[in-house]
Amino acid sequence: MQWIVIWCRLLLLTLIVLSVEPPNVRGQPATPEMLRARKLAARRYAGMAVSLPLSAFANGLRVCSRETPSGIAGYWQVTPKAMEALDAELLVHLRKSGLDKRLPFSAKLYLRQYAGFVRDGTRFIYVNALLVEKGKPLVDVAQKKFPQSCAEASGSWGIQYDTQAKQFVGFTAR
Question: DSSP labels for 21-35?
Answer without folding.
Answer: PPPP-TTSPPPHHHH
